[in-house]
Write a structure and sequence with these properties.
This protein is of the alpha/beta class. It contains 21 helices and 18 strands. The protein has three domains: about 170 residues, 2-Layer Sandwich (Ribosomal Protein S5, domain 2), CATH 3.30.230.10; about 210 residues, P-loop containing nucleotide triphosphate hydrolases (Rossmann fold, 3-Layer(aba) Sandwich); about 70 residues, Helicase, Ruva Protein, domain 3 (Orthogonal Bundle), CATH 1.10.8.60. Strands 11-14-17-10-18 form a five-stranded parallel β-sheet. β6 and β7 form a beta hairpin.
C-alpha cells in the first residue's frame, strides 16, 4: 500500500500572540479525496482549490490529478484555525509527501502565505507576530510573502526569506535558487502632521495639561463650549509625544499586524485613534467571530480620542474602565479568553450641557438644570475617577485669535522636554515592567512618589470625601509627573496642589 506522510510548520494568531501549528499531510491509496481537518474555518477549507490551482500553474502535479486520499491535519486539533496563510505550508507539505520536491529538513522552518491561483504569494496578517513566535520556539527560518518580509525581519534571531511565488519557494528549498534573506530597514511611513502647540491661540492651561498627559501617559478630559479648540488640542498631543522605542514599536506593530493593518516595517509614530460616537462596541473594544483588535488596542502606546464623550453609548464608556486600569482588554469566547494590549492615553472632550453653553459668559445656556445634570451623568463617576486630568477649556477672546505671534512653546520644544522626562521614567522603572508614571501600581506609587514634609502636610488638608483610594493614587502619579517636569526628585506641595487642581469633582 502506498503511504506517505510529511510534516511542516505554520502558525495561528490568537489575539496578538501566535501559536505554533503542525501541518501534517498524509497520502493513502483510494478514491480521490482532499480533506482538511483540525477545526479549519471556511477560508482555510477553501485552500484546497487555491492549492490545487497554484500547484498546477507552478508546473507540478496537483492533488486533483491524483487518485489518492489526501488528508491535511492541522495540529493541535482542538485549536480553531482561521485564515488563508496556511496555503504555502499545505502546498509544501503536499510536495514533500508526493516526493515532487527534494527532501529537506522541515523541523527548523515555518511557512506562511496565501496562494493566488497562478502560484503567486499574497501578503498576510500577523507576519510580525508569527516571526516572533519562530524566534521564541528557536526556529531558524521563516518563509513568507515578500510584502511581509521587512515587517518580519524586525525580529532578531530568525532568518526571513521573502518569496514571490510557490515556484520560487520550491527552487529555494531544493537549492536551485539563492534568495537573499530579508534585512530590516526603517519604513518611510510618516506620521500624520499634528497641529503645532504654538499655532493654538491661548488655552495655556490646556497646553500645560497636555504636556503633563504626554509626559506621564495620563488620561485627560477637556470640558468646554463648542468651537473653543478641544479637538485641535487633542490632535496636537501626538506631536509632543516622543517617538516609539523599538520595544514599543514592536508592541504596536504586532497589534496593527494582527488587525490586518500592518505597514511595511515597524510603526514608529504614536497611534492616534478617534472613533465616532456611533461606532459599535466590537469596533471599539475588539472581538468578532475571529477576534480582532479594536480601536482601544490600535491606540496602544498612543492616543485614543473620544470627542463628544457623553454621546457614546453607555456600554462602550463602561467597557473602558477595565483597560484604563489594567492596560489590557480581555475578550471572552467559548473556547477561551484572548488578551489585547490597551495601554493608551485617553483624551476626551465634551460640552458642559446639551446646548454646549452652560457656564459660558458670552452665550446663554438654554438647558434646564435637570437637562444639565442628566447630560453630565452620562459619564459615570467610576470612569471619571480613572481620568487623571480634568480641565475646563474656556472661550478664547477675539484679540488672542487675531494675533499673529506664536502662542507659547512650539511642539518641538515641548517634545524635547517630554522626551527627557520619559528617559527619567525609563531609568526609574528599569527593573519594572512599566514605562510611564501612569502605569505604576499602588506599591510602586508609594515607592517612587515620595512626598516632602510640606507635601505631606498639604495632603492632610485635602477634602478626603473628594478622593477615592483610586483617585488618591492617581493624584500621586500625576504629581510625580509634574515633579519630573520640574526636575525634582521629591514631590513637593506645589506639585501636589497642581495635580489636585486638575480633578473636578462637584460636577463634570
Amino acid at each position: 500500500m502506498l503511504k506517505n506522510l510529511a510534516k511542516v510548520h505554520s502558525a495561528e494568531l490568537e489575539g496578538v500572540r501566535a501559536r505554533l501549528i503542525e501541518v501534517e499531510v498524509d497520502l493513502n491509496v483510494g478514491l480521490h479525496a482532499f480533506n482538511i481537518v483540525g477545526l479549519a474555518d471556511k477560508a482555510l477549507n477553501e485552500a484546497k482549490e487555491r492549492v490545487n490551482s497554484a500547484l498546477k500553474n507552478s508546473g507540478v502535479k496537483p492533488p486533483n490529478r491524483e487518485n489518492r486520499k489526501i488528508t491535511i491535519n492541522l495540529a493541535p486539533a482542538d485549536v480553531k484555525k482561521a485564515g488563508s496563510h496556511y496555503d504555502l505550508a499545505i502546498a509544501i507539505g503536499y510536495l514533500l509527501a508526493t516526493k515532487q520536491i527534494a527532501p529537506f529538513d522541515a523541523r527548523d522552518k515555518i511557512f506562511l502565505g496565501e496562494l493566488a491561483l497562478d502560484g503567486r504569494l499574497r501578503p498576510i496578517s500577523g507576519a510580525l507576530n508569527m516571526a516572533e513566535l519562530a524566534a521564541e520556539k528557536r526556529f531558524s527560518y521563516v518563509y513568507l510573502p515578500k510584502q511581509n518580509a521587512n515587517e518580519a525581519a524586525a525580529i532578531s534571531g530568525v532568518t526571513v526569506y521573502p518569496l514571490e511565488s510557490l515556484e520560487e519557494a520550491m527552487e529555494a528549498l531544493e537549492g536551485r535558487r539563492d534568495i537573499a534573506p530579508a534585512e530590516f530597514h526603517e519604513s518611510d511611513i510618516a506620521a500624520k502632521d499634528a497641529p503645532d502647540l504654538s499655532e493654538i491661540r491661548g488655552q495655556e492651561n490646556a497646553k500645560r495639561a497636555l504636556t503633563i498627559a504626554a509626559a506621564g501617559g495620563h488620561n485627560l478630559l477637556m470640558i468646554g463650549p463648542p468651537g473653543v479648540g478641544k479637538s485641535l488640542l487633542a490632535q496636537a498631543l501626538t506631536g509632543i509625544m516622543p517617538d516609539l522605542t523599538t520595544t514599543e514599536a514592536i508592541e504596536v506593530t504586532k497589534v496593527w499586524s494582527a488587525a490586518g493593518l500592518g505597514p511595511d516595517g515597524l510603526i514608529r509614530h504614536r497611534p492616534f485613534r478617534s472613533p465616532h460616537h456611533t461606532a459599535s462596541l466590537v469596533s471599539v473594544v475588539g472581538g468578532g467571530s475571529n477576534p480582532k483588535p479594536g480601536e482601544i488596542s490600535l491606540a496602544h502606546r498612543g492616543v485614543l480620542f473620544l470627542d463628544e464623550l457623553p454621546e457614546f453609548p453607555k456600554n462602550i464608556l463602561e467597557s473602558l474602565r477595565q483597560p484604563l486600569e489594567a492596560g489590557v482588554v480581555h475578550i471572552a469566547r467559548a473556547r477561551g479568553t484572548l488578551a489585547f494590549p490597551a495601554k493608551f492615553s485617553l483624551i476626551s472632550a465634551m460640552n458642559p450641557c446639551p446646548c454646549g453653553y452652560y457656564g459660558d459668559p458670552e452665550k446663554e445656556c438654554r438647558c434646564s438644570a435637570y437637562e444639565v445634570i442628566r447630560y453630565q451623568k452620562k459619564v459615570s463617576g467610576p470612569l471619571l475617577d480613572r481620568i487623571d486630568l480634568q480641565i475646563r477649556v474656556p472661550r478664547v477672546n477675539l484679540d488672542e485669535l487675531r494675533t499673529k505671534k506664536p502662542s507659547g512653546q512650539t511642539s518641538a520644544d515641548v517634545k524635547k522636554e517630554i522626551s527627557r522626562v520619559r528617559k527619567v521614567q525609563a531609568e526609574r522603572f528599569a527593573k519594572a515592567n512599566i514605562i510611564t508614571n501612569s502605569e505604576m501600581s499602588s506599591r510602586q506609587t508609594e515607592q517612587f512618589a515620595k512626598l516632602d514634609h510640606e507635601a505631606e502636610s498639604f495632603l492632610k488638608t485635602l477634602d478626603k470625601a473628594r478622593l477615592s483610594p483610586r483617585g488618591y493614587y492617581r493624584l500621586l502619579k500625576t504629581a510625580r509627573t509634574i515633579a519630573d517636569l520640574a526636575r525634582e526628585d521629591q514631590v513637593r506641595a506645589e506639585h501636589l496642589a497642581e495635580a489636585f487642581s486638575y480633578r473636578l469633582r462637584e460636577e463634570v
